[in-house]
Amino acid sequence: MPVEVTWWGHATCTVEDSGVRVLTDPLFARRLAHLRRRRGELPPPEAAVADAVLISHLHNDHLHLPSLARLSAGTRLIVPRGATRAVPGLARLGLRVTEVAPGDETAVGPLTVRAVPALHDGRRLPVGPRRSPALGYVITGESRTYFAGDTGLFDAMADVVGQVDVALLPVGGWGPYLGPGHLDAGRAAQALAALAPHRAIPVHYGTYWPIGMDGVRPHEFYSPGDEFVRQAARLAPGVSVHRLGHGERLGPEAAR
User: To the nearest whole number, what is the mean pLDDT of the chain?
Assistant: First the structure.
């Protein structure tokens, strides 16, 4: 499995397959509204180098316009259907925007990117009349990599995702409580058991936390990665789980 994955923090990853770099939900901010980055250095400039960028949904911590502005002009940006109407600033970034819905496939060089459903509120918040679906993506090249975006557990997940080699699964959030449409460590481990990939990487935890809440339920910030490793060993013992540090890369040698 020659795919390489770098976790930059939150839901931001670089997936390298067949010589193509795909970036997920780029968030390069030290502070976002009431959130601040509490762990990991800000991603270096190389993190913004990508052949294509995948946006899972329109929440500000996943579709962050200042972070997207760091991309090179003309970069392919794949977004949920309706995103350009809901977020007019997208049109001013100079990116090649492709809107997709579940089931749509997009070619990125030798790769195929397939949009799959996610169980999450995908609209631009706080409120808005236009809704866009929340998505996950399956990146297929020499390997098959599933980026789940932000999602809850749903019965058809394994069927719509299909067979994959690597799963990037959210295991937490940015506050002391997770609302509906999210995976905590236990539910992520259940998803892992259903998906049965060869390898998995926990994401979407341990990066951002509300300002002034450092002393409130701190285990919710620090523990999801380790708890996912523990739960996955129980529910999906055949899957190799890699809890990466910020900026750490998982290369093909890890499969040996």
Answer: 93
